[in-house]
Prior knowledge:
5% helix
Amino acid sequence: MLFTYWEYMKRWHALIVLISLLLGSCATNEKNHYKGLHKVWFNKELDINATSLIVSEGYIYGTTLDKRLFKLDLGTGKAVWNVPSSTSYMGQKPLLCNEQLFIGGSDVLNAFDLNGSLLWSMKTEGNAKHSIVDYEDLVLSSISGKGLVAYNKSNGQIEWQHLPDHQMLSLSPPSIQDSLIAVGNFGSSVENGFRGTIMVNAKTGEEVWQWKKPRYLASEALFHQNVLYSCFDSAYTKGQVIAFNIADGSVLWETASSPETGIKPALCKDGLLIASYKTGLNCLDLPTGTQKWTLNDEALAPATELVVHDGLVYFGTQKRELLVVNEQGLIQFRTQFNYGVGTLVVYKDRIYVIDGGGALYQVPSMDEK
């Protein structure tokens, strides 16, 4: 069936409700949860957005639900600083590069130094709600209604802007490899729905190619060598994973996989990992798109990004469960959370995860189980 504008709006509303449930409190008994995890600390001072975190040199950077940017000590959970910034709640992470932090928001893009001082602030006239990427002296953001915009890192001035043909209801986060940027849902309109994926030259802002798929929602894309992998879905009924030649946008293969378009595909040694709302997690063969294995359990549908480390896949599910799966599709570890599972991060070969209640846990290595 056709996927109308209002059905898209209902879908985004459902996603917001889901995030609220994952991050909100839950009246269950904690002693039956978090089994096998080591609790590192609990921060009661900040209302941490559990989907916003990055780690660098022993510090956690992220945002709060009351629109602040912070720097925490990874070992103690104590705040080094926290400052106001008009951030988004939709899983947006800060970008750290050149000793600067960049973060978007409802109508602004801000740059901070690592001491929390504001370097510059630029009005975006649209929602810069996704994480941003950088290329040479530019930071690039997909902005609702305004297209793909490149800002100068040093002062925030616009260097180029790739405008859509129609008003855009939403865009996917940008992905970048070398000087190529891919953005999904570009050029959408009320009449035709979301239109697919566009490839843009990061130096000039010129279009390289565009692939249109009306009435389909696109995921954040994944570059690997000369191929771009992206997930598309329409009304949770016609989901596909498509592999494109990055040079010209020609389709190399497409596979029905019921993908969750809110989660970026990931690579493992055995193939391409796809979060699925019907089967939990699928692994596809990179050259052909054929399915190699599946968890085949809707209850294990991922709600977080897929983190691959040392031959294992880590993710949180929509049922507030943390799973560790090997690259053959066998579950190695699982534990229930009292709050939603937040960002999983890797630091010094250790996996850490924060929950929606502000507690940081260390995931054991599988040798320590």
